[in-house]
Design a protein that fits this description.
By secondary structure, the protein is an alpha+beta fold. Among the domains are: about 70 residues, Immunoglobulin-like (Sandwich), CATH 2.60.40; about 110 residues, no CATH class. The chain is built from eight helices and six strands. The strands form two sheets. It has a three-stranded mixed sheet, covered by helices on one side. A three-stranded antiparallel sheet has the order 2-4-3, with no helix packed on it. The termini are far apart. About 10% of the residues are buried. Keywords: Membrane, Transmembrane, Transmembrane helix.
Amino acid sequence: MRNISFKRPLLICLICLCVMTKPIMAEERNIYIGDLITLDIKSQAVDEEALREALTAFDVVDIKETNEGYQVTIRSFEPGDTTIAIGNQDITIAIASTLEDMPRDDIFEGDLTPRDDGKSVPWFILYMVIIGVFVLSGCILLIGKLRNRQAKELPPYERFKSALEAVDISTASALVEMTAILKGYMEVVFQCKIIGKTSGEIMMEIQYIESTKPYQRIVKQWLNQCDTYKFSGVQVNEDQVEQLRLELIQIGVSIHEKEEVVI
């Protein structure tokens, strides 16, 4: 009976010892690349500079001073175990990779087909548009030169008449254009320089040219009427401008019939 009484306290002590030495189980979670890690440093012997020096292997996000020490937030972008020494204590931090969690027995395979960024410039279409613009511009210039050459090859009166027929009488510059056409025609036929001169200067220039005397009166009348329309400020309608054009054509016909045969 005494032996049983003696063994009972011993059994109680053994049970308590087993409970006290049993490891505490806690839920663990892997720390992955880029995760924020918070460390509570409860020591007054370590300052902020020493902490930063000890944590050079990590990206230090924040360091806050607490009543008991420091609270440090760090992260890492390199997988693996890293041991740091803070004070007289070593801390090992294991950084896991999401690839390590994938159950794979062979190598990872990827798609070898190049990806399209979806924003590539359609160079072929752009080149074709540029070439088309150059070709179109070249054709327009060529057609213009051919027309000018054909116009120059025409007799003076034909150029004079074609130019007058091309004048748009509805525009404000119609009278100016017709005056310039008359000057150009007379310069060619009578071998004089009157472009850029006023009506009075034109008459002074041609009065000494014997071949112009049969036409000086009608040319002067036409120029005076044209100047009246241009400078008097009176509203001129299209019928009046058309009448001036017809009169100018008749002047050209008169000069053509008698004078161009001399050229």
